[in-house]
């Protein structure tokens, strides 16, 4: 698979009715209405796996899970991990559940549907989570309309549209993850090129996190944020 990020000007990957894609060593089946995992997001996946690799039975939330790629890669790499994945649309939830069953991980990965953490309802793991991982939509609505409209030819708007300034979901993620995480638990998420300072401000302003750091891609560009709950 050719490297591609959600906010590049590359043409979207072509997609048959059901296509297969590799992500961190697992094979996913993806149909229409679901984001095809980008190779760039493997940076977040490797980072997340590194955070919980030596934990005992870590509880992980994969928010905005799409096809389930991040949560399933973590569960595959960390046999003791339990993952709660969630997304909003029927297409993404169906895809994530399908891939969970295909990979034989249904005993440790559950997929929920709803608006961010409200998806968990009365099963909310508030205050118990070791890691929240998320690849959220982070492109501004204006840029998506004016220069990146081609992304919507094959893939859903919900996977890209981050609101007027590209940080609407990021704001909610940073705020609400603090309620889910145990003290010392980690939040790790992808963000767009050029959003480094906005993300640093969001995390710092929340007052809920410490040890805020960033992971650069192979070009030396910060693309992943990590923060620990105080």
UniProtKB/TrEMBL annotation:
It comes from the Bacteria. This is peptide chain release factor N(5)-glutamine methyltransferase. Keywords: Methyltransferase, S-adenosyl-L-methionine, Transferase. The keyword Metal-binding does not apply. GO terms for biological process: methylation. Gene3D superfamilies: Vaccinia Virus protein VP39 (3.40.50.150). Residues 56-153 form the Methyltransferase small domain. NCBIfam families: hemK_fam. It is an enzyme of class 2 (transferase). It holds the Pfam family MTS. The keyword Acyltransferase does not apply. It catalyses: L-glutaminyl-[peptide chain release factor] + S-adenosyl-L-methionine = N(5)-methyl-L-glutaminyl-[peptide chain release factor] + S-adenosyl-L-homocysteine + H(+). Its EC number is 2.1.1.297.
């Amino acid at each position: 698979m050719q490297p591609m990020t959600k906010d590049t000007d590359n043409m979207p990957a072509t997609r048959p009715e059901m296509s297969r894609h590799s992500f961190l060593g697992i094979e996913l089946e993806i149909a229409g209405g679901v984001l095809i995992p980008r190779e760039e997001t493997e940076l977040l996946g490797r980072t997340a796996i590194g955070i919980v690799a030596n934990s005992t039975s870590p509880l992980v939330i994969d928010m905005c899970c799409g096809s389930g790629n991040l949560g399933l890669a973590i569960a595959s790499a960390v046999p003791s991990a339990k993952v709660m994945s969630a997304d909003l649309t029927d297409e993404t939830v169906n895809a994530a559940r399908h891939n969970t069953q295909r990979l034989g991980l249904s005993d440790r990965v559950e997929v929920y549907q709803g608006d961010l953490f409200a998806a968990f309802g009365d099963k909310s793991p508030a205050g118990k989570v070791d890691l929240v991982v998320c690849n959220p939509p982070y492109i501004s609505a204006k840029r998506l309309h004016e220069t990146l409209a081609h992304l919507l030819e094959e893939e859903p708007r919900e996977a890209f549209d981050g609101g007027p300034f590209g940080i609407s979901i990021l704001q909610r993620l940073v705020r609400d993850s603090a309620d889910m995480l145990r003290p010392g638990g980690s939040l790790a998420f992808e963000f767009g090129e050029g959003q480094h300072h906005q993300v640093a401000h969001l995390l710092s302003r929340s007052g809920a996190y410490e040890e805020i750091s960033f992971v650069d891609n192979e070009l030396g560009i910060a693309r992943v944020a990590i923060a620990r709950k105080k």
